[in-house]
Amino acid sequence: MVINYELIAQDPATGARAGLLHTPHGTFKTPMFMPVGTQATVKTVTPDELEEMGAQIILGNTYHLFLRPGTELIAEAGGLHDFMNWHKGILTDSGGFQVFSLGDTRKIKEEGVYFRSILDGSKQFLSPEVATRAQEELGSDIAMAFDECIPYPAEYDYAKKSTERTTRWAERCLKAHTRKDRGMFGIIQGGMYKDLRKQSAAEITSLPFDGFAIGGLSVGEPHDLMYEILEHTTQYMPVNKARYLMGVGTPDCLVEGVARGVDMFDCVFPTRVARNGMAMVHSGRMNMKNKQYERDFTPIEEGCQCYTCRHFTRAYIRHLYKAEELLAFRLITIHNLFFLLQFMRDMRQAIIDGNFGDFRESFMAGYSARAK
Amino acid sequence: MVINYELIAQDPATGARAGLLHTPHGTFKTPMFMPVGTQATVKTVTPDELEEMGAQIILGNTYHLFLRPGTELIAEAGGLHDFMNWHKGILTDSGGFQVFSLGDTRKIKEEGVYFRSILDGSKQFLSPEVATRAQEELGSDIAMAFDECIPYPAEYDYAKKSTERTTRWAERCLKAHTRKDRGMFGIIQGGMYKDLRKQSAAEITSLPFDGFAIGGLSVGEPHDLMYEILEHTTQYMPVNKARYLMGVGTPDCLVEGVARGVDMFDCVFPTRVARNGMAMVHSGRMNMKNKQYERDFTPIEEGCQCYTCRHFTRAYIRHLYKAEELLAFRLITIHNLFFLLQFMRDMRQAIIDGNFGDFRESFMAGYSARAK
User: Which residues carry out catalysis (chains A, B) (predicted)?
Assistant: First the structure.
């Protein structure tokens, strides 16, 4: 197989595991956080900056690239790696999540999903075959199967029908997957229903995917329910393949996800909040616009080794943000991404050192979701 | 003196000269272009990026920094160099140009200028003494005298009165200038009137400034008139001090300015047009939004050694711009600034090699101000 997961260490008390993911663009350390590069760019930063902060795999959005500039144009450029000049790992989602988020403007049929482009209103169609082909044009190391992300809350009957269709679509994706130099992950759905999660896990993991994702979580449900469904799902997943929890990226959820045996995560959270002036720190979040930082000539977080903290002060970043200078967005983005990537590295080391329980406890004790 | 100009080579046919400018933050090569960092940041780029592209001195705007975050706060941070983490040269304007641009909302008196803040409408006052003190708080290597930039066109009587006031203000600036570890340049005004230019040059250059600027050009007059007044003015300026043409930054004007003996230039042009999607090339400008670049997988300009051209294609930059990705602004800004800085380096080498005439002729033959 073109994607291989290698287990290095495991926390005996929880399911937390440290491993290596072998891909066509290198071997990467897990657990890992994947920065999101929606439109062939992780917003505000260059590939060199991503590399400097230690990013390993980034995520590209098939839905956005399919509509603009078009996956066929990117294929002409030599694929997404060459187009954006990023030569480490790329995972692409299938476009399913975005299409289903369109609500009433899209029509789901057995053959696929009909929708209108947000850019020009033109009629568009995505299906297991189209999404697979688009991702092969992008040339991502890991393509994702085309699935339906079930909204929360959802009726049992709808969730069951949708989950079963996701399995049929997964089979069609594998059939359409012709690039043997690239891998593909299947996605387990099932909403918040344990029997459906078990059924979906059984069906999807029986298919010859290179790894498996847990989809349909972090869609508005309470954290406790997310953790419960996640734990219930991972128990049915094979230990010899990578496990990817989609759309999760706050530090508390990352720790709790790792504790439940997850290896890979992605989320727009660190980049999106950066553009709102929010800097991530171990105690939670700092609103860089706050008056209290006006004359604070210390870095965002003492001891942080990111480019921003090594070069600039809170007072300077606050000034840039208040003055609406674009550099503010970049500096906070760099800090937030570095923070999460370093957080994952620290967590991995704790697993290897046998200290994961202490790490988890001490982090959660100091963390607050409230901005200060 | 704390700022010294050293002549290295001179073109015999024109007044073009190559030199060295010694400042408290290093020795820099002239002729030079100074990127504009209005609000303690050259828009979209970091100091490291400025250094990589070979920037030597950047310009800070006293008017903007005076209003936000306040020059006193920047003094607390250790001065503008430390605040923005740029440790090569900084020249600050006096705020005069911006204040006079406010039009009817400001009142010019002999003691200074009363105006209202564009940020909060508060009453503000700038004068030779206030502007000098503000620049000493910023700690720029080169402060500029507080002057009035005469609009174009202007009546002779107004121009004469204003020019004479600028001389009186220049004397007050020198008196207020107490930081002997920092330099100050005087500014020659006189509008488009040759006798006033001669008078202003005589008066200002008789004062013990570290260098001299030609102000009040590139304010809407035709290029031919600008060149004529410039040439008329530089003949009255001392050869042993740096000459700075304020607010000029298109390549054609830079060549023609150098040909008339100017050593230093600044302009928002390269950074501002970058944010409008315009890339500067030897033949003029490229509108990166144009359809013709959609599948053009070559760099902005073949052979350009800037970071952007070494890493990214026209098609990718066009995509970023169309997708409203902030990275587009940065990549074009980097290219444009590198282009102008390299252009000045090439021009300097041509002067040293005795080829300035050929350089000027061949550049002007291929240059068009129209975007393509």
Answer: 93, 266
Residues B259, B287: one domain? no
Which token pair is A110? 């057995």
Which residues of B does the annotation mark as catalytic? 93, 266
Q: Could you tell me which chain B residue has the CA closest to the CA of A328?
A: B44
Is A370 domain-assigned? no
Residue that is last in its domain, among B266, B289, B304: B266
CA separation for the pair A155, A192 (Å, rounded): 10
Which residue does chain A place closest to B310, by CA atoms? A85
Active site residue A296: no
Q: Give which of A107, A4, A23, A118 is closest to A61, Cα–Cα.
A: A118
In a domain, A197, yes or no: yes
Domain that holds residue B298: 272-364
From residue B256, how far is each of A103, A220, B125, B267 by CA, in Å?
A: 60, 63, 37, 15
Domain count, chain A: 2
**Which residues in chain A are closer than 8 Å to B44, comparing Cβ atoms?**
326-327, 330
Interface confidence (ipTM) of the complex: 0.97
Phi, psi of A140 (to 5 degrees): -65, 150
Give the burial class of B222: count Cβ atoms within 10 A of its Cβ; 0-12 exposed, 13-18 middle, 19 or more buried. exposed
Among A314-323, B97-106, B274-283, B327-336, the range scoring the smallest mean pLDDT is B97-106
Is there a domain that residue B369 lies in? no
Q: What are the CA-CA distances from residue A191 to residues A150, A230, A249, B37 (Å)?
A: 6, 11, 19, 52
What number of other Cβ atoms are within 10 A of residue B322's Cβ? 17
End-to-end CA distance of chain A: 47
pLDDT tens column, A170-218: 999 999 999 999 999 999 999 999 999 999 999 999 999 999 999 999 9
Residue B202 lies in a domain: yes
Among residues A266, A282, A299, the one where a domain terminates is A266
- Please report, for the domain that includes residue A93, its CATH number: 3.20.20.105
Nearest to B295 among A73, A78, A327 (CB): A73
